[in-house]
Design goal:
Layout lengths: L3 H11 L8 E4 L3 E3 L3 H17 L5 E4 L15 H11 L3 E10 L2 E10 L4 E11 L2 H17 L10 E2 L2 E2 L22 E3 L7 E3 L2 H6 L1 H15 L1
Helix pairs in contact: 2-4
């Protein structure tokens, strides 16, 4: 019989391995022409959007920029590796924010320690508006982390319902007059569009009775 420790080790090899914990660190964005307080808010937004994805077990935002974190570091695996090892993390989500006129130019990079390479890079522009930056940042962070762009909304749908023409011609049926419609109409003198049933045919049907009644009255007068 095999020793118990050996059996446990063998069982561990046979069982499927569980998913490894994945942590990320977000250092302050490299700022160019951006107020330090604004840059702090932008970094916090990137960090919170990364945490919201649910991809990482933990997302840590660094309070101060690591030594050597510059614009050129964003394309250097050795520089990003040093930042990751110093923070004791598996991945680095770093970036740069540049104010150009009325817009912010962003660059985000996603670095993996295990692969020792930059997995994804994303450059984009957002208007200099807190509301539009807050609305637009999430999709870009998701894309640089997962590598998949968010799906475009379906313009044929509105509030989850299919957009249909409520007044399509096919929805209405025109009823044509039937061949046996023998009703006769008379135009009224005051309203030309208004029609009344012609009841004169009743007189035609009653002509025989009227003639007999006239003959009877004449005989009584004699």
């Amino acid at each position: 019989m095999l020793p118990r420790p050996f059996c446990l080790a063998l069982l561990g090899l046979l069982l499927p391995s569980t998913a490894m914990a994945l942590d990320a660190v977000v250092p302050p964005l490299v700022a160019k022409g951006v107020d330090p307080l604004v840059n702090l808010n932008l970094t916090s937004l990137v960090s919170s959007e990364a945490d919201f994805l649910g991809v990482f077990d933990e997302v840590t935002q660094l309070d101060t920029a690591p030594a050597g974190l510059t614009a050129s570091c964003l394309s250097s695996t050795s520089c990003l590796y040093k930042i990751a090892k110093a923070a004791g993390t598996d991945t680095v989500l770093a970036g740069q924010a540049t104010l150009v006129g009325q817009d912010y130019q962003f660059k985000l990079v996603y670095y993996s320690v295990s692969k020792n390479r930059i997995l994804h890079t994303k450059t984009f522009k957002l208007p200099n508006s807190p509301a539009e930056i807050a609305d637009g940042m999430g999709g870009h962070v998701r894309e640089v982390v997962t590598g998949s762009a968010p799906a475009a909304p379906d313009s044929t749908k509105l509030n989850g319902f299919q957009d249909v023409d409520l007044f399509a011609d096919d929805d209405f049926e025109t009823v044509a007059p039937t061949a046996d419609d023998s009703s006769r109409r008379l135009q009224t003198p005051t309203n030309g569009d208004q029609q009344l049933d012609d009841l004169s045919f009743l007189d035609e049907e009653d002509d025989g009775g009227a003639a007999a009644l006239a003959t009877e009255n004449a005989a009584r007068r004699q």
